Amino acid sequence: MTAHGTDAPPEFRAALESVAAARVRPDVTLREVPAPRRVAPFSLALTGEVAGATDDDPDLASGRFILLYDPAGQEAWQGRFRVVTLVRATLEPEMAGEDMLAEVAWTWLADALRDTGAQAHAEGGTVTRVLSQGFGALAGSSNDVELEMRASWTPSTPELGVHLEAWAQLLCTAGGLPPLPEGVTPLQVRRNTVGP
Known about the structure:
- This protein is an alpha+beta fold and 196 residues long.
- The chain has helices spanning 10-20, 101-116, 161-174; strands at residues 28-33, 42-50, 61-74, 79-91, 120-132, 144-155.
- The protein has a domain at 10-91 and 105-126 and 149-174.
- The protein is 21% helix and 34% strand.
- A six-stranded antiparallel β-sheet has the order 1-2-3-4-6-5, covered by helices on one side.
- β3 and β4 (79-91) form a beta hairpin.
- α1 (10-20) crosses α3 (161-174) and α2 packs antiparallel against α3 (161-174).
- The model is unreliable at 185-196 (pLDDT under 50).
C-alpha cells in the first residue's frame, strides 16, 4: 500500500499497516487510487464498489475512502488524522418519498462505527438524495433515486483499519446488502484488491 508523501512518519506508516490488515466483506472490491496532494502532507485514497448480483447488473454502491495525516495536527480535525468518505447508491423508487431517508442513512454511519469499534469524534457530513424522472422518449423508464453521503470524522485511536471496515460496512448497507452475523461468509465471493 502506497500513499502520498515521502519519508512518512512512523505513526502514518503504522496507520497504513492497520488499513492494509482491515477485513471487509468479500462483496466489497477495493482499489488504491491517487490520493489528494494539497489537503494534508500524507494521505491514502481507496475506491470501493459493491457489485450487483451478475456482471450485467450495475454496482449496488460505490465510493471513496481517504485517510489524511498531518503530523502537526489541524484544529478543524481536532487531531492528526482525518477520514473523509463518499458513498453513492441507487435505491428503490419507493424510497424517494421517505421523509426520514437522510436521517436513517446518517444512522448507518453511526451504526457502522459502533459495530466495528471505530472510535471517532468531530463527525460531520451531508446526505443527498436525487430523484431522476424520465420524460418524453424516456417517460417509460423507471425512476431512480440516488443517495450520496459525504462524511468525515477524526479517529480517536491509532487503529485505523477499523475505520476502513466501518466505511465498507456503510457501503454495503447503502447498497442494500443484509448485515452478516459474525463468522458468516456470503456464498458469492469476490476478490478484494488493494493496489493498482
